[in-house]
Specification:
Blueprint: H1 2-13, H2 15-32, H3 35-48, H4 64-73, H5 75-86, H6 93-103, H7 106-128, H8 136-152, H9 157-170, H10 186-189, H11 200-222, H12 229-238, H13 245-251, H14 257-273, H15 282-289, H16 295-300, H17 302-312, H18 324-331, H19 341-352
Helix pairs in contact: 1-2, 1-11, 2-6, 2-7, 3-5, 4-7, 5-6, 7-8, 7-9, 7-11, 8-11
Length: 353
C-alpha cells in the first residue's frame, strides 16, 4: 500500500508529473473510449507492429507502469492517429489536435519516459510484496533494494538524456527548449528574477533529479528505519546477540524469560551440532521448524515456536495489499462519505476479516 502512496507523493509534489499523467489519462480515454476511434487507431498500429494500449488502473498507482509502457511503444502511431483525427474537422478534432501537440513536445516524451522508469521499478517491488507468505525481514530487504535501485538513477542522467534525445529525434518530436523566464511579482520577493537555466540539459537535469529525489524522500518517510526495529530485536535474540529483555518487555507474561533463554540456547546448540549455517534471521529459524522435519523441534522448544508464530503474525501485507484501495472504494461509498476515520477503520476490519 505504501508504494501506492510513494507514487502519489510524486504526483502531488512534482507538477509536471501530475500534468503529464493527466494528459496520458485523457489520451488513453480518448482513443479507447470510442469503438470507431479504437478501430481506426489499430490501422496505424499495424504499420508499426505496436502493442495494445492499457488503461490506467484508478486505484493502484504501481499498475500504471504498464499503461505508460504501452503509450511509449505506441508513441509514433498515436501522433499519426491524432493528427489524422484533427484533420477530419469532426467534434473530436479539437481534442485530438491538443493531444497531438502535447505528444509532439519533448518535455512530454522525457517525463513519460522518466515516469515509466520509476514506476516500473516500484511495480516490480509491489508485486513481490503481495505474497501472502512474505515475512517482514524479506520485505525490509526488498524495500532496501528498491531504494538502492532508485538511488542509482541519480548517476544515470547523462545516459538517460542521450537516449531521450536520440529517440525523440527518431520520432520527429520537437527539440527541447528553455521556456521564457517569468519574473516573480514584487510583492513576493522584491521583483527579483527566477533561476535562469543556461542549457536545456540543465533544465531537464533539474526535472530528473526532482523526480528521483522525491521518490527517495517519500520512501524514507513511508518506510522509516524504526519500522523494522521490532523484528530486528527478535532476530538478534534468536541469533544469540541479545538477551531476552526486549522480548519480555514487549510480550510480558506470554513468555517465561528463563525458559525462553534456555530454549534459545538449545536451538543454537542444535544448529551447531547439525553443522547448519548459523542462525541469523527469523527465516533461518522458520526453516528449522518447518514441516515434518521440524515437528520434534516445535515440541521440544515450545517457547521458541511460540515466539516465531507471534513474529510471523506481524502484518507485512494485507493479502494483496495493492487492492486495498479497491476495497476502500467499496467500503466508503458515496452514501457513507461522511464516515469518520475511526468508523472507516472498524468497517475495513470487518470487510477484511
Amino acid at each position: 500500500m505504501f508504494l501506492n502512496l510513494v507514487l502519489n507523493d510524486v504526483m502531488q509534489t512534482v507538477d509536471r508529473c501530475r500534468d503529464i499523467l493527466s494528459v496520458i489519462t485523457e489520451l488513453i480515454s480518448f482513443v479507447t473510449g470510442s469503438p470507431k476511434r479504437l478501430h481506426w487507431f489499430k490501422t496505424f498500429q499495424e504499420e508499426e507492429e505496436s502493442v495494445s494500449l492499457v488503461k490506467f488502473c484508478p486505484t493502484r498507482w504501481t499498475l500504471k507502469a504498464s499503461s505508460l509502457r504501452s503509450v511509449l511503444k505506441n508513441y509514433r502511431p498515436l501522433i499519426l492517429f491524432l493528427q489524422e483525427v484533427a484533420s477530419e474537422r469532426s467534434e473530436s478534432s479539437a481534442k485530438a489536435s491538443g493531444l497531438a501537440k502535447a505528444l509532439s513536445k519533448f518535455q512530454t516524451y522525457f517525463m513519460l519516459k522518466l515516469m515509466k522508469l520509476v514506476f516500473s521499478r516500484l511495480e516490480t517491488v509491489s508485486s513481490a510484496l503481495q505474497k501472502r507468505s512474505l515475512m517482514l525481514d524479506e520485505a525490509k530487504r526488498m524495500i532496501k533494494a528498491a531504494r538502492e535501485s532508485i538511488s542509482e538513477l541519480r548517476h544515470s542522467f547523462p545516459r538517460f538524456w542521450a537516449e531521450s534525445l536520440a529517440e525523440a529525434s527518431e520520432l520527429e518530436i520537437e527539440e527541447p527548449s528553455i521556456p521564457a523566464s517569468k519574473k516573480t511579482p514584487r510583492r513576493y520577493d522584491g521583483g527579483s528574477g527566477g533561476h535562469v537555466f543556461h542549457s536545456t540539459e540543465d533544465l531537464y537535469r533539474q526535472l530528473y533529479y526532482n523526480v528521483v529525489d522525491t521518490v527517495l524522500s517519500s520512501l524514507d518517510d513511508r518506510y522509516p528505519a524504526d519500522r523494522w526495529q521490532h523484528i530486528t530485536n527478535i532476530e538478534q535474540f534468536l541469533a544469540g546477540k541479545a538477551d531476552a529483555t526486549y522480548v519480555s518487555q514487549c510480550y510480558g507474561s506470554d513468555f517465561q524469560t528463563e525458559r525462553l533463554k534456555l530454549h534459545r540456547d538449545m536451538l543454537l546448540d542444535i544448529a551447531t551440532e547439525r553443522n547448519e549455517p548459523p542462525v541469523r534471521t527469523l527465516e533461518d529459524v522458520v526453516q528449522m521448524f518447518r514441516g515434518e522435519e521440524g515437528e520434534h523441534l516445535r515440541g521440544l522448544l515450545p517457547e521458541i515456536a511460540m515466539l516465531v508464530k507471534i513474529a510471523l503474525t506481524v502484518p507485512v501485507t494485507s493479502c494483496t495489499s495493492e487492492r486495498s484501495f479497491s476495497c476502500l472504494r467499496r467500503v466508503k461509498t458515496y452514501l457513507g462519505s461522511t464516515m469518520g476515520q475511526t468508523g472507516l477503520n472498524h468497517v475495513a476490519l470487518l470487510h477484511g476479516h
